Each structure stands twice: as C-alpha cells, then as structure tokens.
Amino acid sequence: MKHLILAFALILPLSVGAFKPEDLKRLKETDRCLKCDLSDANLRHANLYLANLADANLWGANLADADLWKIKSQIKFGGISRH
Questions:
Q1: Cα 38 to Cα 41, 46, 73, distances in angstroms
Q2: Which residue range(s) make up the domain with 17?
Q3: Cα Rg for the chain, rounded, in angstroms?
Q4: Binning pLDDT at 50, 70 and 90, where does residue 76 land?
Q5: How many domains does the chain have?
C-alpha cells in the first residue's frame, strides 16, 4: 500500500497543469485558440502576432522572446516564465 501511495504522489504532479497537445496544434495551424489550455507549454520564440487567445490558460507557459504584439487578450497569464 505504501508503494501505491508513493507512486501516485510521484505521478500525479506530472499530469496536473500540462497543456493539451491538440490546443497547441490548433494555435500553430490557425493562430486561434479560444478557451484553450496552454499551461506549461513551451512557446519560446513563438510568433503570436495577432493571435486570438481569448480566455486561454497560459499559466506557467514559457513565452520568452515570443512575439506578443497585438494578440487578442483576456488571457490567464499567471506564472509565466520569462527566461
């Protein structure tokens, strides 16, 4: 039983807060991702010029050197990595 609890304790944090790959794909293909989950996504150097990310979750996303000029907003930006 102790091993089972330990396994859950190690695995559960890895799955919490991860972005949805289909949302990242949609953003790359259409420059739109409304209400999508991009939390913890690596968007470093991403060209998001004029992208529509209304109500997107970018908590913990790496946006270092990303082009954020004129993105459509109401985005959840908490915990963004700027490195």
A1: 5, 13, 14
A2: 1-83
A3: 15
A4: low
A5: 1
CA distances 42 to 7, 8, 36, 71, Å, are 27, 26, 15, 17
Burial (0-12, 13-18, 19+ Cβ within 10 Å), 43 = buried
**Global confidence as pTM:** 0.66
pLDDT at residue 81 above 50? no
Token reading at 2: 């102790």
Any idea which residue has 């004129």 for tokens? 70
Measure Cα distances from 54 to 3, 7, 13, 23 in Å: 42, 37, 27, 13
Question: Can you read off the two tokens belonging to residue 38?
Answer: 């991009």
**What's the rounded Cα separation, in Å, for the pair 52 and 70?**
9
**How far apart are the C-alpha atoms of 81 and 75, rounded to whole Å?**
15
Distance CA 60, CA 38 (A): 9
